[in-house]
Amino acid sequence: xxxxxxxxxxxxxxQNDFCPGGALAVDGGDEIVPGINRLIRDFPIRVFTQxxxxxxxxxFASSHPGKAPLEMVDMDYGPQVLWPDHCVQGTDGAAFHEDxxxxxxxxxxxxxxxxxxxxxxxxFENDHRTSTGLEGYLRSRGATRLTFVGLATDFCVGWSAxxxxxxxxxxxxxxxLCRAIDADGSLDTxxxxxxxAGATLIG
Length: 203
Description:
Blueprint: E1 7-12, H1 33-40, E2 45-51, E3 72-75, E4 78-81, E5 107-111, H2 134-141, E6 145-151, H3 153-166, E7 170-179, H4 186-197, E8 200-202
Parallel strand pairs: 1-2, 1-6, 2-5, 6-7, 7-8
Antiparallel strand pairs: 3-4
């Protein structure tokens, strides 16, 4: 829980396509919404991220003939999981879950909008070099302690938390307010990676 002006809550990708019925549904993705709504009141700095892909994005399996969702390909920036088309700009799937209280957001950060590269982390594109600008925003607000919630634990939440810890923020991940895809052991890998990076996992 945030208890000072340096605390920021980072709500990752609680969007329709990641909730039940969506194009890339995470089991129980909608279950975390009430808890996030309660938690957000306790933080002075509140950031929401939104996956925001153009149609035909390079991370979509449909952009790679003969490939299926969850297959891997090598991109210029490294290995990339291929996904079903999801969170396409301006679609209902890209919209935040209708019950999520987004009005308290200080910043809504859209990511994954560059057609040629995916972006799991709220801080960097998947090349680990191209910044989203979030670090600068948080520094300018004086944030030092970040709490992460949202979807999915093993991809966008995990990568964001690891990057935040490497950037020197004190990081907490509320696992009770996250849900995972867990493809081929990806959840265990992400949990270990977050711990190794110095993140505190609770819930």
